[in-house]
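$ ./design --mode recover --in tokens.txt
reading tokens...
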């Protein structure tokens, strides 16, 4: 009986010691992950006849640069994520604004949030993602609304301007970091050609 009591007491002590050490490890992980070197559609180009139009130059290291995203083209992210214990996932969020293409003021503007989770960083401590495919931003959207008793379909056009993009990362312990005001320009191909063609 005495041996059984000693065994039971030691089992309880060892179990308590094990769980207290696990809790201590989790409490120690309070350092948030970091995000750096964010670029959207780095080295992106379009063809205009025989002319190659460069959109985002990878050699431009100016911290005030604004990357350009062309509607209907895939949006890719390049970024470096680091954490001392291990990363979990990241997400990118942008809220394009659409307006009525006929200029009717009675039709309210629409915001279509685009939220995309990143891939391939789980359990990594230091990783740079290259060309991680996110989403395609449409240049028009169709919306159905109620006008009195009937349903009306509206075609809304993207407002071409500078948008704030949010890039956020979380580590395995739940700590997070984010870049909230990363600037990107959303525009369509015609606008880009009008601005760039003829410039050397």
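writing sequence...
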């Amino acid at each position: 009986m005495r041996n059984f009591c000693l065994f039971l007491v030691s089992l309880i002590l060892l179990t308590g010691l094990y769980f207290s050490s696990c809790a201590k490890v989790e409490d120690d992980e309070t350092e948030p992950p970091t995000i750096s070197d964010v670029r959207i559609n780095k080295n992106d180009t379009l063809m205009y006849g025989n002319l190659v139009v460069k959109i985002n130059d990878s050699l431009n290291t100016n911290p005030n640069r604004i990357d350009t995203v062309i509607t209907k083209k895939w949006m890719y992210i390049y970024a470096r994520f680091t954490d001392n214990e291990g990363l979990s996932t990241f997400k990118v969020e942008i809220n394009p604004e659409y307006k009525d293409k006929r200029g009717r003021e009675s039709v309210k503007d629409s915001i279509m949030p685009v939220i995309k989770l990143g891939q391939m960083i789980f359990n990594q401590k230091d990783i740079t993602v290259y060309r991680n495919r996110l989403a395609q931003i449409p240049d028009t959207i169709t919306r159905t609304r109620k006008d009195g008793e009937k349903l009306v379909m509206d075609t809304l056009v993207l407002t071409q301007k500078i948008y704030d993009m949010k890039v956020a990362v979380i580590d395995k312990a739940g700590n997070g970091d984010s870049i909230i005001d990363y600037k990107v320009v959303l525009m369509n191909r015609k606008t880009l050609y009008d601005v760039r063609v003829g410039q050397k």
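exit 0
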